Amino acid sequence: MWNKRGDMRIHERSPFNAESPLGALTDDITAVDAFYSRNHGPIPELPIARWRLRVDGLVATPRTFTFDEISTEFGVHAVTATLQCAGNRRAELADVRDIPGEDLWGSGAVSTAEWRGARLADVLDAVGADRTHGAHVCFEAPDVSALADPPQVYGGSIPLAKALSPEVLLAWGMNCEPLSRVHGGPVRVIVPGYVGARSVKWVTAVTVTDQPSDNYFQASAYRILPPADDAGSVAPGAGIPLSTLPITCDFLSHRDGDRVPDGLLTVTGYALAGDGRDVARVDVSLDDGRSWHQAELDQPRSRWSWRHWSLTMTAAPGPLRLTARAFDDTAATQPESAAALWNPKGYANNSWPRIHLSVG
Ligand SMILES: Nc1nc2c(c(=O)[nH]1)N[C@H]1C(S)=C(S)[C@@H](COP(=O)(O)O)O[C@H]1N2
Ligand SMILES: [Mo]
């Protein structure tokens, strides 16, 4: 389905929602056919010849761009960036308390690609974005989601300051291929360092405003609600909107419950820091967090991509409980338990990942 590998873990066929097999995430760049896919409605078909991008709002000269114009007037900029869905590891939150109505994603709602496109900042400059009165940049796409009542097209917004940063792209290329339809082709937004929800696919409108987007996916969904709230009856504006990603890490080489031979054991994983932060250290504990061993960090492809890590140990026969934690360059680290983070929609679980192995 959608040219994805057979070992993707499919949560829903329509709308299409599938997580990456963990084994595919050990490469720096995730192959397109293993890249996770998160959709809230049917995937639209937008031929390049018919695609248009309207750029308006608090700008001097609103303009509608064709694909040729967007892809030739602003140069080609490449950014290697990791996308992570705010629902990654929701399943562990649901173990704490029920999260009805949401797919229970495991650890595979994260992937990395080399994106190519125009810098959003250059397009905003070309139309004369008002840096005095403008504060947000809203995106809209034509895919209609029945999750909103009444059904609504997908949208969202980011602060104008972030939109003007050079890493934010209007991308038409992914891993040296034209951006595929399932990943937002012909053109999508890529907002490195932010929750995946803001990287709006099939983008057809960019609007500079003084307020965040009032689209359902910005005003009602993708928000951290107080634990006592009912996710089914949320007033727009309730809770805290998700924007930058929190520091996180996870295991990739092994899964909870795996059996391994005794002797030398190498465990690997990835760590990912949020907007403008670098991964500074990853530790692994063999005793539920009482003591820690520092893992080796690989060089990241870019400051917007994950860093893989590894640790080699001698594993004795018996149960082995592994826990990991990452620190960013401000010394921010991850909370210990999913219980501390539980929220009604099950977002942003960056608690310590834990796996239990049987050795021997
Ligand atoms: N138009 C549109 N853009 C969207 C979405 C969507 O449903 N519609 N899903 C968002 C979410 S929640 C995520 S995590 C990323 C996933 O991008 P991918 O499917 O290319 O992995 O796209 C974002 N952009
Ligand atoms: Mo997402």
Automatic annotation (TrEMBL):
Swiss-Prot/TrEMBL cofactor(s): Mo-molybdopterin
Stored SUPFAM superfamilies: E set domains, Oxidoreductase molybdopterin-binding domain
Positions of the Moybdenum cofactor oxidoreductase dimerisation domain: 263-358
Oxidoreductase as UniProt keyword: yes
UniProt KW Amino-acid biosynthesis keyword: no
Keywords, comma-separated and alphabetical: Heme, Iron, Metal-binding, Molybdenum, Oxidoreductase
Protein name: Sulfite oxidase-like oxidoreductase
Source organism (scientific name): Mycolicibacterium chubuense (strain NBB4)
